[in-house]
Structure formats: structure tokens, C-alpha cells
Amino acid sequence: MKLTKSLLALALASSLVACIKNDDAPEGLQKAIPTAEQVKINLPQSASRSVGQLADWYVATRNVTATFNGGSAWVLVLVHTIVQFPVTTTSGDVYTWGPWHDGALAPAEYRLDVTDNQDGTYDYQLLGRSRTEANAQFEVVIDGFADPRPGELAGNGHFKLDFDAGKRVNPIDADPSARGSILATYDLSTKHLTLGIDTTNDAGEPVAADYTYNEAANGAGDMVFDVDGDAGGGAAKEHITLRSRWNSDGTGRADGRVTGGDITAAIEAQHLEASLPDGVHASECWDGMFKRTFYTNNLATYDASFPQPEGDVSACAFATEDLPPAN
Question: For the chain, how many helices (H) and strands (E)?
Fold first, then answer.
């Protein structure tokens, strides 16, 4: 939030000192960049909740949405705000805003470069450099492509957020917990969004994850999350797939599958390959207040130490498990 406010203040302040209007941006550019609202993941939430256990996987789904929505919002708000103002300079088909900083004590300065590809599409980069490091060079913090040709609210494109570059540029205001990068690809006409995550865990080990999100016209949603991580308690990594589906009223279901690593080793040690040929599966449903109504897994029958089923599947908004094929 500090970085967001600082950059927005920087953009607004720069417009006040631009007394002489330079070159105008290409027509249509202001609508080409998607807004944060257009590419956000819309998960129903409620301020009032019934007493009881919130569904664990609803909470996990909510955390995923909050991470992406918050991480992308400041970028898109900033870029969308900057392009409303006069261009600082032009060089051929490249339009530049800045570089600007937020006063003598500002730790970083930024500039936005937009390239008109002369076919109705645009490439854009937000670059920054530290003002606290001698001879610091501009680094790309956001690198995007926008295609508004399908029409208003029907465009598509992608953008990559480099959190590590953001911290090198401005270690004072940047979120110290953010690391790695996110590549987001969107299609506004179908409300489709994919995310490719390259990051590290707390031990510094690389982690790669993929999200796919689709939103229906009535606000219902469907999200699939794939990641390699530790779900078996040992050193080996498992492959985890979590699919969450929800209706516009908040009712939903999540199905999960864990394969490989210690999970596969445990299945083989108990000679359960024939009974669990596709790894460990679990499902959870929640009501409109996000309280768990049903939970089951396919290992509890063979291992009493594993969480036991509860609730009735008839209470689920989606009656059956539906997961993409295992990788």
C-alpha cells in the first residue's frame, strides 16, 4: 500500500508540473490497459458469518484471490492513472511518461514506456531505478501487452509483475514478503484469467504454480490451482491440484488431489495402489455463509489418523468431484 500511494502521488504530482502539454498518446490507449476491476477474481464474501467452522478450502481460495487482486491492483491502477496524463516525450512509436520521483527523499523514480505497434495493439513497461544506489539502472517492474481491438470490455492481453525488481528499485516501500514474479493472461470477453507464478518458499526453494480462473455472467466462478509443494510431511515434493467452484450466492465446493512424493510412497508402503490409483483425493463444500457442510477424502477408509468424513454430500452446491486430469 505504501508503494501504491507513493506512485499514485508521484503520477498526480507530475501532471501538475507539466505546464506545457507535449505529445498526445495514441487514440484508444487509455482504454487499452485493463483496469484492476476488469481482471480481478470475484469470490463472494460476507461480513456476517454463522458461528461454526469456516470451510478450510474456502479460506484457501479467498487467500489466493486476495493475493492476486492486491498484487495486480496497484500496478494496473498506477499504469491506468499515468496514461490519463500528457506524454512527456516521444521517440518514433514509443511514448514515455516520466521519469518522475516523489520528492528529494524519494528512494526511487519511475517511468512508463508504451509502444504503439501500429496494428491496434500496445506494449507497455513500467520501469524504476533506485535513487539510493549509485549508478543504478532502470529495471522493468511491469511488462505488458494489450489488445483492445475486440472492443471495449472485450480486449485481451498479458502482463508480468516482477516483485524482486520492485524490491531492488524500492526496498523501503516494497512488500518484503513478495518475491518472484506473476505472469497474468486475460480475456475480458470471456472473463478468463490465467496466472503463472514463479517464486520461492520460506526456505528459498523454487516454487512454480499455475492458476486458471473463469467467471460466469451471473458472478459464479471456477478456479483451478496447480502447484508442486510439500503436502506429505517429508522432504519430497507432491503435486497438488485444487479446484474451487462457487455460485453467485457464495455456496461452493473445492476438490483436491495430491500425487507423487511422500504421498505416493505412503500409498505404495501400504499396498494401496489398486485402491488409490490416482493419489489422495479430498472434497469440501460450504454454504452461503462459508461454513463447511461436507467433507470427505479417499484415504480415511484405510488410515484412521487421516481426517474423517463429515456432513452430507446432498448439501453441496456441486454434487460431484470434477478435477482436471492429473499431470
Answer: 5, 15
